[in-house]
């Protein structure tokens, strides 16, 4: 269905033509223009239906038809790999998006931050139930707010990005070149009342993971980047994964990302270059679909923390009927009843989904290169259905649709 607004029509038309021109090649896995699909062996993680690869491609195609310049997904299935790409990495050069292209992962960063803090807990340098103010004296106005509250979004600390991005394009333009200190971001939050008493309710807030970054830096004496690199990127050989701040460029080969304006019909805004200083340890990591699959699989297999700390990460606060939040990680239950573990990410220009099974044997990472477009966000949730639930027994998947938007970034949806 062609639902793109003016300004996206040209791109959309080109992509559809490319697909129609090469149906056989697209289907058999060769690259062409904006459409590639490649399939290795089918590994089939135990107990799961085979991934619905045709369904996955169709989800990506829909996301592009709905306004994303590009979209891609990768499934790692117990040693086998499947990936698909659709559309453009760059609207001006019309380079096709590539499966190895890097992108901004937004709040998937939160899991990395949580892992560093859990490792510090493993090293007895941090107590999860200690007040944040024990480590950062006087930072928060309530001594009852603990590290665990922060990592599970139960601190009640107001999310300053609510106001920052109330208007999407002007809000973005006003911060895209700015460099904030963590303290400045916390101050923005504290200018507003807390959303709940400490521990009393789940309320997603970037402020929590700004505090997490401050804890990492205080406890280790190093910038968060050093800790991500030494504790996660290097041990897992995540060669496409970087923490870049405050530089504005993505390193190496990457796909550009395009923000959808609030005004219908207005042209997309190329949002690729920004400091991401408004998010930092809450959202500034750059990665690839391969690295995200490696990361979440390693995490749930216990390769990054002790099993006791992993169990703490996986103590769930219910969010709604289909999702729950642990410590920097989400659980989503899909229409087929399977639960998957990971995170979503939303930064200007990029929607990311990265989830794995309980045993880490099948993982999916997907990105669409637009944001502020709820239709695309919902559509991309379909990549999880295709990856983990297999071919639909009967359409439509009402259960999946019901829970989709629920775990998006706060500026997109609030529960
Ligand atoms: C920020 C706004 C969303 C995104 C956010 N992202 O908090 C964190 C996350 C890091 O959870 C922006 N939305 C968009 C608006 C809405 O501007 N008015 O969609 O690009 O990943």
Walk me through the structure:
- By secondary structure, this protein is an alpha+beta fold.
- 34% of the residues lie in helices and 17% in strands.
- It has helices at residues 9-21, 23-28, 53-65, 109-122, 132-135, 147-151, 161-164, 168-175, 182-190, 206-220, 224-233, 289-300, 307-313, 374-389, 398-403; strands at 35-39, 70-77, 80-90, 95-96, 103-104, 242-243, 258-259, 269-270, 285-287, 317-318, 323-325, 330-333, 339-347, 350-356, 362-368, 370-371.
- Strands 1, 2, 3, 4, 10, 11, 12, 13, 14 and 15 form a 10-stranded antiparallel beta sheet that branches. It has a 3-stranded antiparallel beta sheet with strand order 5-9-6. It has a 3-stranded mixed beta sheet with strand order 8-7-16.
- The chain is globular, with a radius of gyration of 20 Å.
- The two termini are 29 Å apart.
- Residues 1-42, 399-406 and 408-415 have low confidence and may be disordered.
- It binds glycyl-L-alpha-amino-epsilon-pimelyl-D-alanine.
């Amino acid at each position: 269905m062609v639902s793109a607004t003016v300004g996206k029509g040209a791109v959309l038309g080109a992509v559809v033509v490319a697909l129609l021109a090469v149906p056989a090649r697209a289907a058999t896995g060769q690259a062409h223009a904006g459409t590639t699909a490649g399939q290795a062996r089918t590994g089939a993680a135990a107990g799961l239906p085979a991934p619905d690869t045709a369904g996955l491609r169709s989800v990506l195609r829909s996301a592009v038809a709905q306004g994303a310049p590009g979209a891609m997904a990768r499934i790692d299935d117990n040693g086998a790999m499947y990936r698909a790409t659709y559309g453009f990495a760059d609207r001006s050069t019309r380079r096709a998006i590539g499966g190895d292209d890097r992108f901004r992962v937004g709040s998937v960063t939160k899991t990395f931050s949580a892992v560093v803090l859990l490792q510090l807990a493993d090293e007895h340098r941090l107590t999860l139930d200690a007040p944040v103010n024990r480590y950062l004296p006087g930072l928060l106005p309530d001594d009852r707010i603990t590290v665990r509250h922060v990592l599970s979004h139960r601190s009640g600390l107001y999310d300053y990005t609510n106001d920052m991005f109330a208007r999407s394009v002007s809000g973005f333009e006003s911060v895209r070149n700015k460099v904030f200190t963590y303290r400045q971001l916390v101050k923005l939050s504290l200018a507003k009342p807390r959303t709940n008493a400490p521990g009393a309710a789940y309320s997603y807030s970037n402020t929590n993971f700004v505090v997490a970054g401050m804890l990492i830096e205080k406890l280790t004496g190093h910038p968060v980047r050093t800790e991500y690199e030494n504790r996660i990127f290097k041990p897992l050989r995540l060669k496409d994964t970087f923490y870049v701040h405050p530089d504005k460029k993505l390193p190496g080969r990457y796909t550009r990302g395009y923000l959808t304006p609030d005004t219908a019909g207005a042209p997309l805004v190329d949002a690729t270059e920004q400091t991401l200083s408004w998010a930092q340890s809450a959202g500034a990591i750059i990665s690839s679909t391969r690295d995200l699959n490696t990361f979440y699989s390693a995490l749930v297999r216990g390769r990054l923390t002790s099993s006791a700390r992993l169990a703490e990460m996986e103590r769930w606060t219910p969010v709604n009927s289909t999702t729950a939040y642990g410590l920097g990680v989400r659980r989503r239950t899909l229409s087929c009843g399977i639960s998957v573990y990971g995170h979503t990410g939303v930064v200007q220009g990029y929607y990311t989904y990265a989830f794995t099974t309980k045993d880490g044997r099948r993982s999916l990472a997907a990105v669409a290169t637009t944001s502020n477009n709820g239709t695309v966000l919902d559509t991309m949730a379909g990549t999880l259905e295709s990856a983990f639930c297999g071919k639909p027994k009967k359409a439509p998947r009402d259960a999946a649709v019901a829970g989709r938007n629920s775990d998006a970034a706060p500026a997109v949806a609030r529960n």
